[in-house]
Amino acid sequence: MSADESIRAATRALQAGEIKLCLSLLDAVLGERNGSHEAAAHFMKGLAFEYGGDDVEVDLSKAARHYRHVVHLVGDEDSAPLLYLARVLLKMGGVPNGASALKAISAASEIKWSPEVDLAFAEYHESVNKDYHAAVGSYLRAALRGRFSGFFGASRVMRVQGHVVRAAFIDVVRVMLGPFIFLLIGRNARRSFWS
Hints:
Number of strands: 0
Radius of gyration: 18 Å
Structural class: mainly alpha
Number of helices: 10
Distance between the termini: 31 Å
């Protein structure tokens, strides 16, 4: 089986939740030392360990290791691997992981500032340093750039702060603008930091 076929089969296995099969196919791809498929294989292994599945436990440290490989291989061409790494580090918790997550998010913002970067900063501010004002600002920036999850995040953080009326206002705006956002930008509106 060629590396392309193995990657396609591993993708189907990952989508079907057959994580063991996916990992074995990806190990075969990585064993070939084919540089053109190495980043994809490490990325998929990161996903497999992040979400787990059939007899494969979630292992966030392995997921982070594979995402770091992708970051190293891709370099500064794409910010997405840095955001995946940041998400796993935030899930792992702890001060060192939070600092590493902030470093990854900052590096992603230098490559390309996207709404997903705003969502990542918001999640960092909400969960690690508890700077709710900065979290709301980042969520609202993401919402203004068309990410529906920015509305949900801003509303949630406002409720935590005790600003129930402001949160209700954000919810009303979200309900009123939602159909227009989905019509204008489609699937991109549903993307979030955690997806």
